[in-house]
Design brief:
- By secondary structure, this protein is α+β, with helices and mostly antiparallel strands.
- Helices cover 20% and strands 20% of the residues.
- Bound molecules: adenosine monophosphate and zinc ion.
Length: 118
């Protein structure tokens, strides 16, 4: 656990969250500011800043995040599909430095992948 990490504190139960799933490797909870009707964050329980720091030792947790995404999306109300977003580092516009996969969906298409820059 990283002592000053907000998502480590959520895993430890020191900060409240709306938990939807937990197992030995990952923890999932509703995003506090949902961007779509379904917006869940899935995180490794062990602190990892981003994919920039990922090593083969993290593969089990990273695989679990993707492997559980469809079930979590369907159970949360997005059975027709969903998008997984992982922002990494400054260029990736990551705000919370504990790796998290956004699972976003609902009953309408989530929209274009990125806003055009021009
Ligand atoms: P990112 O920009 O990819 O780092 O996304 C960070 C996400 O964490 C945002 O969607 C925030 O709304 C969400 N977030 C920040 N603090 C909390 C919290 N305490 N509980 C749930 N979601 C949070
Ligand atoms: Zn952390």
């Amino acid at each position: 656990m990283s002592s000053d990490c907000i998502f480590c504190k959520i895993v430890a139960g020191q900060i409240p969250s709306k938990k939807v799933y937990e197992d030995d490797l990952v923890f999932a909870f509703h995003d506090i500011h949902p961007q779509r009707p379904v917006h869940i964050l899935v995180i490794p329980k062990q602190h990892l800043c981003s994919l920039q720091e990922a090593t083969p030792a993290h593969e089990a947790a990273l695989g679990r995040i993707l492997g559980i995404a469809g079930k979590l999306a369907a159970e949360a109300g997005s059975p027709g599909g969903f998008r997984v977003i992982i922002n990494n580092g400054e260029i990736g516009c990551q705000e919370v430095p504990h790796l998290h996969a956004h699972i976003v969906g609902g009953d309408q298409p989530v929209g274009p992948m990125l806003k055009r820059q021009d």
